[in-house]
Amino acid sequence: MKILLTGASGYIGLRLLPALLEAGHTVFALVRDKRRFPGREFEASGDQLQIIEGDLLDPDSLPVIPDGLDAAYYLVHSIGVGRDFADTELNVARNFTKWLSGGSCRRVIYLGGLGELPDGLSEHLQSRLAVGSVLAEGDASLTTFRASIIVGSGSASFEIVRDLAEKLPVMICPKWVKTRCQPIAIRDVIDYLTRVLETPETEGRTFDIGGPEVLTYRELLKGYAEVRGLSRHFVPVPILSPRLSSWWLYLVTSTRFSLAQALVDSMKNETVCTEHEIRELIPLDLLSYKAAIERTLSRIAQNRVPSSWINSLVGGSLDPRFIDAIKVPEHGVFADRQSTALEAPRAEVIDAVWSIGGENGWPSMNWAWDLRGWISRMGGGIGTRRGRRHPRELRAGDALDFWRVLLSDEASGRLILYAEMKLPGEAWLDFRITEGELIQTATFRPQGLLGRLYWYAVLPAHWFLFPRMAKRLASGKH
What was the pLDDT predicted at 43? Predict the structure, then answer.
């Protein structure tokens, strides 16, 4: 099929795009700026993927609608852009509908939000309903999926849950923590969005999609903490206004205030499925909430590549076009990022990076690495005694001192290591070597207060170790 994908560079779009390509569809991805789209990872798609540029806020910037479209996905979302986000969303939806009317597209697929009774809904949920109404006025048949919280790295609501559970041993609980919702795993959302194309019975209809459990927001926080092995205590507060709640979220999480305000306002509304017919039309083995968290917090947090491809990654057979899409966690973490210009040919730098550890030692403060390995052994860990399988060669799955190789791709200059030492959290070491730059990132996801204290305790050593290591590797030395 020929598919138009709007919001192609957004949270859902970047996950849906590989799934559509994998299913054999030809995709026209609409983006506002081609330079900001991570196109390199999709180079192998060839003519199967066409990137088209245009801004749905500016109708004059939109190109001629592609010929012969079978379906279009509407995944544009303006929540958190400011006070006028609802008006912005309506304008964008109207421009999209008018633009699409100039072509032959026969159906539109829209991902909206759960919620009933427009008069009692938050501005955000009312906006989602209003957008659906505008899309329904177009010439194409509209299929709407309505979802509650989507569990996946990068989902705004889930990231707030993650931030709160990670940072606060004792949590103040406003009234909205008793509100019920029906979270759904990002994997299941992508499956619904992909398989709807081959299910004609869904045309022109609205479906509620949700996971197998109905939970309160407090149960979301508690469930996340249990998966992470964190002890958390909840203190109910009878009165905490939405505005104070918004400021509280803004201060203790990484969200913007406008987004926190929109989300808190929505948390007064129950977002629970009122019908389940989609489960008969598109039967899926839906992930439970905790299983979805475990998948999200897998050792390689795949921000854009569907989780089902993680097995091919570990097996060393990952499609090269997806190498750039693999990322370690970005939320609820501490990170040390060093970017250094190459002082030696790229091939020599790659050789230096792929030679670290084992009998070759580490390129900066080797004694500190040995000491860290000894401390790990004293705590019952593995230390550095494992060394490495080969003095120069690294494969996915190899042991490297107290690290495990998760990804080794010399062609793209990408190496990811995962720490297997004793730690109050999880750690990754990520190397990217481009034509002119070495990017070295050490990432640590703390487990509770002890993990945070650990990071600050070793921070002074990092100030010396990591810059020196990056500079030495960039010069082709190990």
Answer: 65
